[in-house]
Design a protein that fits this description.
The chain crosses the membrane at residues 258-277, 463-481, 501-521, 547-569. The chain is 43% helix and 10% strand. It is an alpha+beta fold. The radius of gyration is 44 Å and the shape is rod-shaped.
């Protein structure tokens, strides 16, 4: 069957390339030979083709393997005489751009063979890459080879200039990569890539035709393949050929390369500065790693029983749990006014009666976090360390191991009671202060240099560098998904795909690459409190973990930077601005956008909290341990308040006879020793009890809690003695606020004094309420005990005290003519003498 084809090709002397092309437009006749089905070997087809081409110029051989045609491989015969095509269908054009150097060096009598292998390697056939990935042919495979007149293949390879092969017309399917068939029968991409339009325009000039072009340095069987989504991750930049371009190209002189080099230098300088800051902290004795080795005390935790009435809570103590226990062990503030029974009962009943909603709890957490950020900026101590060892949403941390080990830290936090309350109120009233504090304290470059009790600044700096480098490496890895390509690929190979599954794969890989190593490095570099009983082994373990931390961090950073640099070395020049935009967004995001977003989120929540619950600033939750005094809005109101207080104090006078009667009365009390008792002793043991507002009677059961099993609890209960019909105005009452009968509301405290409530209840001696409250001790590792038998409860209202002058003057004001100052540590007898002497005319 004869088919009339024509051939069109243009050649110019100025280009180093010649184009051998074929067309399907018929003007002359040619010979088409149909081979038997059993003849499907490319070598046999070439031999038949050579024999036919010698007899009829432009012969075409069609077999079960595909369609083949030959073109004389000579400078004078650049125009082919026939087009390989499908019988009865529109043929797919095949073009090959050959270097002139190769044509000039070729011997006579050679042919360029085109074979469309649509019979054995058709479109849609499944195949495998050399790496083991499954792929699919997007077009029939093309065999391009050079043979002699007998059909024997002449190897062509290792060329300095590229050969361009048009393997297919433009495809409607997205994606596709060039590959060649190896001797093992698998496809490989080594040394083959899709040519870009810029490359083709330079090499072929006007001979360029639309389609899929592959570039290679050798001739073999080529095909266009569809790879999975990870084919567009630019992982090929780690191949030996791509890594070689790190040395060959001038990528470090380009703008993206300069940006990355500056980023790497800044990360290195940041780690060095952080290490210097660590040494400075150690020299100031603010914190050292050896402080983490301590004799871990017994863990004391609140044991208020909410589930089982009258039961004791078992608390286990261990070195591993000691550090975590710092977050849970709290007690009331040390201010004397807070620890009075009336104040404690009022606070606890108010906390129970006012069940805060989730919105209020969230708002309080936001205000607490803002306060911690301001405190962190002031003390230059990390927020999480302050939360765990100084103050948090549950109040002041009692028994902090960090404060106990670091004297410098103890000095910094010794006088924070009033200052923390001022910070809390200032942040609530000043919006711009909240903005600046949140932005400053949350910035990564600032918080790195804050002292942390568990991980050094150098380690945190390296983790930040790893996080930033990992983000940049991730963007380079998936750059094709954003529309950027390498010199070895083209936009058609990895087009932008907006499907959800692609973004899901990218997002999952991002989390694994960034969050995974970051969490692992943080856990490896973090240190916790440990018992000094095994100090040597603990130090060796810390040294081993430190060495492993720095090794893994260095390897991770090196891998990220190698990937980024190799990507930049293979990046096409047209995509420089896209790379700058992507890398710049990541760097600015880590340094500015994330802290700014965190600040805005915190500001919105704080504003919503203050609008919904304005009373939080004036009356914060009692568990926070803050003392907020109500302040007048104007200067005139402040003046009125001060004047009223002055008048009240001036009218608390006491007559001389009342002064003498008081001294005569305290001489009868057992606690009073004229030569030793101070003003503080008299106020606590006499004036306060005698100035209660009523004389309501009550009875109290006093129990010493110092047990380890049920039998001891029962023994203590059997020895309880009742103190009944004790007048509150005649004797000091050992009052346990919210104690009632049994252990229903028993609260554990940390401060312990050698005092037995048992003996006090037997002797009937008067004693200090604060000492009684501090004497309640709940030791760790106690077992669950049976409820203490309870008698019918006798309730009474809490007694509020007044000034002693108000009591003796029957609540009538009495102006004082003399004023005597005193110190709490002065001997009370001397104060009495000075007051009597001052009253003489």
């Amino acid at each position: 069957m004869l088919v009339p084809p024509t051939f069109t090709v243009s050649t110019t002397s100025s280009t180093a390339w010649r184009t051998i092309s074929t067309s399907k437009t018929a003007t002359t006749s040619a010979l088409i030979i149909v081979m038997p089905d059993e003849v499907n070997n490319v070598q046999e087809i070439a031999q038949f083709l050579m024999s036919a081409s010698l007899d009829a110029e432009g012969a075409v051989v069609k077999s079960s393997a595909g369609t083949a045609s030959a073109v004389p491989f000579e400078e004078g015969n650049l125009l082919p005489r026939v087009s390989p095509h499908y019988v009865g269908t529109s043929a797919a054009n095949v073009s090959v751009g050959m270097p002139v150097q190769l044509l000039n060096q070729s011997e006579g009598g050679r042919f360029l063979i085109f074979t469309m292998l649509d019979g054995v390697m058709p479109e849609g056939q499944a195949a495998n890459l050399e790496s083991g990935k499954d792929v699919q042919l997007l077009a029939p495979a093309i065999d391009v080879s050079v043979t002699d007149s007998r059909g024997v293949r002449v190897p062509i390879g290792g060329l300095e200039q590229l050969i361009f092969i048009r393997v297919s017309a433009p495809l409607t399917e997205a994606g596709g990569v060039c590959a060649f068939l190896t001797d093992e029968g698998v496809w490989s991409r080594a040394g083959v890539h899709r040519a870009t339009e810029d490359e083709l325009a330079v090499a072929l000039g006007e001979d360029y035709a639309p389609g899929i072009w592959c570039s290679s340095t050798h001739l073999t069987i080529f095909a266009i393949l569809l790879e999975p989504v990870l084919a567009c991750t630019n992982l090929e930049v780690l191949s030996p050929q791509m890594l070689q371009r790190l040395l060959d190209s001038k990528w470090y002189r380009r703008t993206p390369g300069i940006l990355i080099i500056l980023t790497m230098l800044c990360c290195t300088v940041l780690v060095l500065l952080a290490a210097t800051a660590d040494r400075k902290v150690q020299s100031q004795h603010l914190w050292k790693q050896q402080f983490l080795l301590t004799a871990v005390p017994l863990v004391r935790a609140p044991c208020a029983c909410s589930g089982a009435k009258g039961a004791l809570v078992e608390v286990q103590s261990s070195p591993e749990a000691a550090d975590d226990a710092q977050h849970a062990v709290h007690s009331a503030p040390t201010d004397a006014s807070w620890r009075t029974p009336a104040t404690m009962a009022s606070a606890m009943s108010g906390a129970r009666g006012h069940a805060r909603s989730w919105a209020r709890r969230l708002g309080i957490k936001v205000l607490v976090r803002g306060t911690l950020q301001a405190l962190a900026a002031k003390l230059r101590v990390e927020e999480s360390s302050l939360r765990g060892h100084v103050w948090n949403g549950q109040g002041w941390v009692q028994g902090s191991l960090a404060v106990a080990k670091s004297k410098r830290l103890a000095q910094l936090t010794a006088n924070l009671d009033e200052e923390l309350s001022q910070i809390f109120t200032s942040l609530g009233h000043r919006r711009w202060l909240r903005v600046s504090v949140s932005l400053w304290a949350s910035h990564p470059l600032v918080s790195i240099f804050f002292v942390s009790f568990h991980i050094t600044s150098a380690k945190r700096a390296s983790i930040f560098a790893a996080f930033l480098s990992g983000s940049l490496a991730l963007s380079a890895l998936f750059m094709s998904a954003a529309g950027l390509t390498l010199d070895s690929t083209s936009d058609l190979e990895c087009p932008v795909d907006n499907s959800a599954w692609r973004f899901l794969v990218v997002g999952c890989a991002s989390m694994l690459l960034n969050a995974g190593p970051r969490v692992c490095l943080y856990r490896l570099g973090r240190r916790s409190f440990a018992s000094d009983a095994r100090a040597s082994s603990q130090r060796r373990a810390w040294q081993r973990d430190d060495a492993l931390f720095w090794l893994l961090a260095s390897l991770f950073l090196a891998a990220c930077w190698l990937l980024i640099c190799s990507f930049l070395a293979n990046l096409g020049q047209t995509d420089y601005w896209k790379c700058m935009l992507c890398f710049g967004t990541i760097i600015l995001g880590k340094l500015f956008f994330l802290p700014l977003g965190s600040m805005c989120f915190h500001l919105v929540l704080a504003e919503a909290t203050l609008l919904a619950f304005p009373s939080v600033l004036t009356a914060p939750p009692p568990e926070l341990g803050l003392h907020i005094e109500a302040k007048a809005d104007t200067k005139s109101q402040q003046s009125d308040v001060a004047r009223g207080k002055i008048v009240e104090l001036a009218n608390r006078g006491i007559r001389v006879r009342h002064l003498l009667d008081f001294y005569e009365k305290i001489l009868e009390l057992d606690f009073f020793d004229p030569g030793r008792s101070t003003t503080h002793d008299v106020v606590r043991h006499a004036i306060i009890p005698w100035s209660l507002s009523s004389t309501t009677r009550c009875d109290v059961d006093v129990v010493e809690v110092d047990v380890v099993d049920v039998a001891d609890v029962i023994d203590v209960v059997d020895e309880v003695e009742e103190v009944d019909d004790v007048s509150a105005i005649d004797e000091i009452v050992p009052e346990l606020t919210e104690f009632g009968r049994g252990f229903m509301e028993l609260k554990a405290v940390d401060a312990i004094i050698p005092l037995s409530l048992h003996d006090l209840s037997r002797s009937g001696d008067s004693f200090d309420i604060d000492e009684m409250l501090r004497a309640i001790e709940t030791k760790s590792q106690v077992n669950i005990a049976a409820p203490v038998p309870a008698k019918p409860a006798i309730t009474r209202e809490l007694q509020m005290g007044v000034a002693y002058a108000t009591v003796v003057n029957s609540s009538e004001p009495l102006a004082a003519l003399r004023m005597v100052t005193h110190g709490w540590g002065n001997i009370f007898r001397s104060l009495e003498a000075v007051a009597y002497h001052s009253s003489e005319p």
